[in-house]
Amino acid sequence: MKTAIVILNWNGKKLLEQFLPSVVNFSSEEAEVYVADNASTDDSVEFIKQYFPTVKIVENTENGGYAKGYNDALQHIGADIYCLVNSDIEVTENWLTPIINTFKKESNTAIIQPKILDFKDKSKFEYAGAAGGFIDAFGYPYCRGRLFSDLETDNGQFNDTTEIFWASGACFFIRSEVFHQLNGFDEDFFAHQEEIDLCWRAKNSGHIIKYVGSSTVYHVGGATLDTLNPRKTFLNFRNSLLNLVKNLPSAKLFPIIFSRLILDGLASVKFLLEGKPNHLFAILKAHFSFYAHLFRFLKKRKESLKKPNYYKHKSVVWQYYAKGRKEFTELR
């Protein structure tokens, strides 16, 4: 089973200096390592050629973000399994083995995520993926090991292998055949939540998504776009709504979108009370962009014979803020 590890890079020489060595040292025997460069203007490519000659380079002609960057690069990479890794990921020894073995044993498993811990505090789960993702009844993404900004300590509670709804784009394994059958990532997302859309489409096509807790990586998070950046708020709020329009069953579409618009308004008030007016304006901008994309995304909707139950818990927002439930195992 041929595996290609593909790191997307844009002006990330410092991150490559810090994190590429672990990927090369702990992966080269089981996989080929690639860097897909998104038209960097720093000397990232020259650095790789000089210090990591075994790493293959795919040079994209423009910075199309996460979605287009990977779509463009993966057209030039032949492998059975693609492993898409953020440039701020540190991998560990033998991290690939349990995941590759799972793919070999389970032909219907199309996407896998490892355990993702926080590089800055390796006892904690990391925001972007933690121990596997789900979506609640109102379309809010959450993870085992992470509810909103609350991160659980890793005490081995998620060392299992289990089915999840979405896998994190920070470290995302997918069968190449499935990736291309689904036409890859939706480039209208640019960045953030495009992996949730791809996972949702994979689910609707009958594929299984797994979390493999015997494989561990460490993620810095926010290395390319900090959580305090209003741009990140804009992308997350807009793309979450677009995800729902594209993938919700018809009977649920209007009531959930209507509810989300109200909840987004409450989130705007929360940002204002916290003294973060830039994030309030980011949500407003996200809604205007959502309306601009609405008809195109309505055209993208395709009803599937298989409509998975997209939520594990009914309302994470209510349980977190009203009930004070901060850990995954407390949810009802």
Overview of the structural elements:
- There is one protein chain.
- With 332 residues, this protein is α/β, with parallel strands linked by helices.
- The protein is built from 10 helices and 14 strands.
- The strands form 3 sheets. Strands 1, 2, 3, 4, 5, 6, 7, 12, 13 and 14 form a 10-stranded mixed beta sheet that branches. Strands 8-9 form a two-stranded antiparallel ribbon. A two-stranded antiparallel sheet has the order 10-11.
- Helix 1 runs parallel beside helix 2.
- It is globular.
- The termini are far apart.
Gyration radius, in Å: 19 Å
Overall, the morphology is globular
Structural class: alpha/beta
What low-confidence regions span 5 or more consecutive residues with pLDDT below 50?
Answer: none
Strand proportion, as a percent range, falls in 15-25%
| Main sheet characteristics | 10 strands, mixed
The tally of helices reads 10
Topology order in helix (H) and strand (E) letters: EHEHEHEEHEEEEEEEEHHEHHHH
First-to-last CA distance:
40 Å
In percent, how helical is the residue content?
25-40%
Number of separate strands: 14
Average pLDDT rating: 93
